[in-house]
Write a structure and sequence with these properties.
Order of helices and strands of chain B: HHHHHHH
CATH topology of the largest domain in chain B: Four Helix Bundle (Hemerythrin (Met), subunit A)
Structural class of chain B: mainly alpha
Helix content of chain B: over 70%
CATH class of chain A: Mainly Alpha
Largest sheet of chain A: none
Order of helices and strands of chain A: HHH
Number of strands of chain A: 0
Oligomer: heterodimer
CATH architecture of the largest domain in chain B: Up-down Bundle
CATH architecture of chain A: Orthogonal Bundle
CATH superfamily of the largest domain in chain B: NADH-ubiquinone/plastoquinone oxidoreductase chain 6, subunit NuoJ
Strand content of chain B: under 5%
Distance between the termini of chain A: 53 Å
Helix content of chain A: over 70%
Strand content of chain A: under 5%
């Protein structure tokens, strides 16, 4: 534990920013979804590093729950993408605009 | 340069590079595989942080279960090249500028303002905090209600996914 915690935090911030860039620039719904997973993982890294540097396991419990929610989100989200693909035959999020006015 | 720092640099650079490659590849299958590599590097970082249980759960749940689900869906929905999707280059430049600003802000917050006076690494305490024994004790005593709620959430997600992916809505 000789590494300063700032290194972990900066890596986590970098991964979060890359995930945001992916969500904003990509047009494939599945890749947008994977970028969201990347952002969840960067938040997990922050939680684990603080938990470990403070010697307290509550942060790791939070990561456990985040993983549960991410699994549920992936299952439901991919089912939604399959249902959308069945209706519109595309995963391009520019063409999926039935909720736009 | 200590061994710990070298291992950290290796895992961190793998994680950072694979995350960038993930959002730049046009083939979704390759992007999913880079995301798996990123998750594996993160599991290594969790081990470096003495979080053994989370590292194992990361490999099993994320790299195992969730990414297999993603790959299944990508294969089902034929991996079309995204080059054919029209995308405005202006949006790309705008997004990169905005996120670079946010990153600089975060880096400023982390390095200059030093918000972590409590982070004096107590190695014995942190090794103890990461064991499956300690996490299980917390999970089944203080956090039993969120644990049960997580079970219900997974049940609801399973039923929801089945209903959504069913062939027809009657």
């Amino acid at each position: 534990m000789t590494i300063p915690i700032e290194y972990y935090l900066i890596l986590s911030a970098f991964m979060f920013v890359v995930g945001v860039t992916g969500v904003l620039t990509r047009r494939n719904a599945i890749i947008v979804f994977m970028s969201v997973e990347l952002m969840l993982n960067s938040a997990n890294l922050t939680l684990v590093s603080f938990s470990s540097y403070m010697g307290n396991s509550v942060g790791q419990l939070f990561v456990f729950f985040v993983m549960t929610v991410a699994a549920a989100e992936a299952a439901v989200g991919l089912a939604i993408i399959i249902a959308l693909f069945r209706n519109k035959l595309t995963v391009n999020i520019d063409e999926i605009n039935i909720l736009k006015w | 340069m200590s061994l710990e720092l070298i291992i950290f640099i290796v895992f961190a650079s793998v994680a950072a590079v694979s995350s960038i490659l993930m959002i730049t590849r046009s083939n979704p299958v390759i992007s999913a595989l880079f995301l798996v590599l990123n998750f594996a590097a993160l599991a290594g970082l969790y081990l470096l942080l003495n979080a053994q249980f989370i590292a194992v759960a990361q490999v099993i749940v994320y790299a195992g279960a969730i990414m297999v689900l993603f790959l299944f869906v990508i294969m089902l929905l034929k991996p079309e090249k995204e080059k054919f999707f029209s995308s405005h280059p202006k949006i790309k430049i705008f997004a990169i500028v905005i996120t670079a600003l946010v990153f600089i802000q975060l880096a400023f917050m982390i390095f200059i303002s030093r918000p972590t006076p409590a982070a004096n690494p107590a190695v014995a305490a942190s090794v103890n905090a990461g064991t499956i024994e300690q996490i299980g004790k917390e999970l089944y005593t203080n956090y039993i209600l969120p644990f049960e709620a997580a079970g219900y959430l997974l049940l609801a997600a399973t039923i929801g996914a089945l209903v959504l992916a069913k062939k027809k809505f009657e």
